[in-house]
Amino acid sequence: MSSLLTKLNDRQIRYITKGVLVGALAGVVVSLFRLGVEIILENIIHLYKFFHSEPLWLIPWVFVSIGVAIIIGLFIKSEPNIKGSGIPQVEGQVQGVVHTSWWSILWKKFVSGLLAIGFGLFLGREGPSIQLGASIGSGVSKLTKGDDIEENVLLSSGAGAGLAAAFNAPIAGLLFVLEEVHHNFSPLVAITTFASAITANFVSLTIFGLTPVLDIGAITSLPIQYYIYLPLLGIFLGIGGWFYNKVLLDVLPKFYQLFSFIPVHFNSVIPLLLVIPIGYYLPEIIGGGSGIVVQFTEWNLSLAVLVGLFIFRFIFSMVSYGASVPGGIFLPILSLGALLGALFAQFMITYFQMDAQYLTHFILFAMAGYFTAIGKAPLTAILLVTEMVGGLNQLMPLAVVSLTAYITADFLDVKPIYESLLERLLPADNNVIISKPHSFVHAVEPNSLLSGKSIKEIDWPEEVIISSMRRGNEHIVPHGQTFIHVGDHLIVTCDLKKASAVRKLLKEHQI
Fold first, then answer.
1. Could you read off the pLDDT of 45-58 as tens digits, one per residue?
2. In degrees rounded to 5, what are phi and psi of residue 123?
3. Is the dihedral of CA 71, 75, 78, 83 positive or negative?
4. Degrees (nearest 5) of the Cα angle 14, 19, 21?
5. Distance between CA atoms of residues 381 and 237, nearest Å
6. Which residues pair with 465 in a beta bridge?
7. Which helix (H) or strand (E) holds 174?
8. What's the mean pLDDT when you consider all of the chain?
9. What pTM was computed for the model?
10. What per-residue confidence (pLDDT) applies to 353?
């Protein structure tokens, strides 16, 4: 009995238990959000079809859309951290440079996200789902009086659970947290996030069933003679990713400066009005884009139509996201990637006699490659597409395309999009916050200047304390003579005002 109590009190078991709780709550909330978006969008599409027989109803619909924009704007004004996808904010929370009220984020993101995405803007549900899950993780930690480290871990596990529930992709949810949010492997973060993601996915499967999010049926393996096309596709997507980042970060802000007479938090009125003619004439293409991916092979579109559809969705995706409304770019990126894959495959079918049955294959490969080029998270991209379509037999071509796209984007100096958005989100002096102790985990990488040195040999910034170390499953209370090795996880404690600067020094191996 005493042995069982000891196990139950074990730190790792405690984290896993809380991770399961976070996953269950995130699974319910994100599934309700996902269901709400689908129901609202489906009814909006029916409304647009109804307007064809009763066009006069478009006049009051304009005022309804303006009213929705005002509601979203008031939410944003009261809680600016619900703007956009929410992923940069979650990364900022993990780094200690963004500070939010978990309850305020939770309900305001939920309601405003339903309105923005449900009304047909070209935005994804995955970013809000990740931020909703992260808020639940933060809330569970605060309500159970956890410390900074626990809140960081549970916040991360909630983010992974949010992605898992949004796309029925638990492994992608785990990899997203490790690859995109933390940029390192922490056993404690990994096992807690895994528990959360699996639990959230179970809840989602219970509500939505076992059908994959992108149900395109079973697809055969790609013949080896077509592998020569994969690096070409990767290069094409890498250049496309560079262009996407350039437009999103540099061109889009200048576009919205043209509407400076509109208060920034009410910018959603622009895409909400523009989506009305789109919904009236092309109701099938409004929304995040997952429906388009499934119907590509049925539509049998020509090269010219594919080019036009890509340009159209690209521009309006930018307009939608640029209004800073609650909604993500994750799913729109995947749908744009699918269009580029269809465009590439159709070109090969038309001019190089490639078998048309492999069009679907290149759509899937391009989804992963395009997201890799933009987000610089290839493992997440590969596993996400794999789980979304429910098959494992395309891992090799997915890997080839993603790796080539990553190298191309790296050569073009493309920075990870969510890191770039986080930098834009922070004010110039982002360390001016209330002073208090703050702890975070730093993983020692192979190229770190810390490796092989004792703690006393390192010129730490003033007031920085290494309060604990983890080496595998071993917990170490460090002292000056303790040597640091590759793979160690340091619990770094410093003043909250200095946390961002200390993290940067450690990350860039300047200590």
1. 999 999 988 899 99
2. -130, 155
3. negative
4. 100
5. 13
6. 493
7. helix 170-176
8. 87
9. 0.86
10. 87
